[in-house]
Amino acid sequence: MKARDFRGRWYNIEAQVYEHEAYIARTVFYVAKLYSGQARAGDDYTQLSSATGISILGFNLFEGSTLVHEVFEFRNRDGGLILEDTMALHYIDLTKFDPEKPRSMRTPFEKWLHVPKLSQVYGIINTVVPEDISQDEVILMAITQHQQLNASEKMRRRMEERELAAVDLAIITGAVLEKGITIGHARGKAEGRAEGKAETVVRLQLLGASKEMIMQATGFSEEELQEILDNHHQHRS
């Protein structure tokens, strides 16, 4: 989801359940595009607003980190100088969030994380919301909206279908990329993985996957995706 706040700052917000190897590169590409896309040749660059990418993750992206929230910014090597109001990336790892932490020790951010972490529980009508969370008007409003969506049979079916599609996509992608790795032993690993990814694009298109889903599964940009499809069609003709 793309959003803009009252100060004109841009945000790219997404929830990602399944890991893929190009995820970091893709988030960097998106936030850079969100920042650079504000200006055209001859524009006043001082009028650019900051761009921030926010990823809510259901997998461990950084094996060497124990933090729930990792932030990446433009800094000098000493870390003392920050290029403010430019670009930043926030990764929120729900696998590292402890919902059992004593309520008195929770930060406002940790209280908010209870909603996505325990979404299945909070999505049930009349669920008892902990007192410290219910006192936050914004969080309580989010839970109420979540329950209303769950109460809608049509919306619930749509969410279930999207979840099943994501599972199918992960299985198909994993199987095809594994073939690319096998090919890589004979031709060089990088070349093999690239071939596996290209084959993934073609197979997913044949299965009816949208461009957005294919880009998400492979990490390719729209231009790279189109080039692969064009090459495939030329080869067939």
Describe the overall structure.
With 237 residues, the protein is α/β, with parallel strands linked by helices. The chain folds into three domains: 1-96, no CATH class; 99-151, no CATH class; 156-229. It contains nine helices and five strands; from the N terminus they run ββαβββαααααααα. It has a five-stranded mixed beta sheet, covered by helices on one side. Helix 7 runs antiparallel to helix 8 (211-218). The chain is globular and about 60 Å long.
Quaternary structure classification: single chain
Q: How many E strands?
A: 5
N-C termini distance: 38 Å
Count of helices?
9
| Overall outline | globular
Strand content: 5-15%
What structural category do the secondary elements indicate?
A: alpha/beta
Task: Specify Rg, calculated over alpha carbons.
Answer: 21 Å
What order do the SSEs take from the amino end to the carboxyl end, as H and E? Answer: EEHEEEHHHHHHHH
The number of distinct structural domains comes to 3
Strand order of the largest sheet: 1-2-3-5-4
